[in-house]
Amino acid sequence: MQTKPGQIKPSQTKPGKKRFWTLFIALLFIAPLFFSYGVYSITEAHGLQWWQARTDSTGMAPDPRSTTDAIVQVYAARAFSWRGVFGVHTWFAVKPSNARSYTRYEVFGWGVRRGRPALLVRSDVAPDGYWFGSQPELLVDLRGGAEIDRIIQHIDQAARAYPHMHEYRLWPGPNSNTFTAFVARQVPELRLDLPPTAIGKDYIAGGGILATSPSGTGAQLSVFGLAGLMVGLEEGIEINLLGLTVGIDLLRPALKLPGLGRVGMRP
User: What pLDDT does 111 receive?
Assistant: First the structure.
């Protein structure tokens, strides 16, 4: 096919477009991690060993001795050490009506190699404690009576049915965020929108490829947490690549970026 003088052949534009989109995608997924590392370098208490970091209460959970309400809370806090550049650790804290203490549900990887279950169900730790020096963010806060007590029962049943009790992988999962997403799918009343920094949430427990979104308001396609797409009323649109999430929330306008998390209107 002949072209007029000065006219660019269609084939000549393709390499340029490919380079542009490759660079754009790389910046979209990688550049936010550099900003996150900068924040980590400034704010993190460096040099501390894990046993020296704070795990005491932040005061975010109501005192169980002064309230009879049933309470369900979900927390997320930056992971310890360099892991905090990339992601967060999440957990559930619940208190049935008239109970004098909270029960905390979360997954750890530390004891799995020694034959211990990944799931820990404890009432002897702060429900809202610092996660080894990192102050948590409250993702869900439900309070009330019989309805909340029923949700607590469903959380307990779902937690104990978690299919990876003796398996843990930091990346791409199953890990603590895989557990939280699994429970949330079984208890859609939570309408839990996990932060984009909850690496492992896109690993569908049980090795599935299709599932509802953790909030129960949409659908998710994921290939073992390494690549996928999520669309939901609560989550918006999220693209997962190698465990990193880029997305946009249209309901409460915000960008979702790797390392940085949510940038824009708070949920």
Answer: 87
Its pTM stands at 0.87
Q: In what order do the strands lie in the sheet with 236-241?
A: 210-212, 218-222, 227-232, 236-241, 244-249, 254-257, 261-264
**Dihedral, CA of residue 63, residue 67, residue 73 and residue 76, to nearest 10:** -20
Residues 6+ apart with CB under 8 A from 193: 139, 214, 215, 232, 234, 235, 267
- Cβ atoms < 10 Å from Cβ of 18: 10
Cβ-based neighbours of 225, under 8 Å, separated by 6 or more: 172, 173, 178, 200, 202, 203, 204, 240, 243
What's the rounded Cα separation, in Å, for the pair 246 and 238? Answer: 6
Mean pLDDT of 63-88: 92
Distance, in Å, from the CA atom of 166 to the CA atom of 162, rounded to the nearest integer, reads: 10
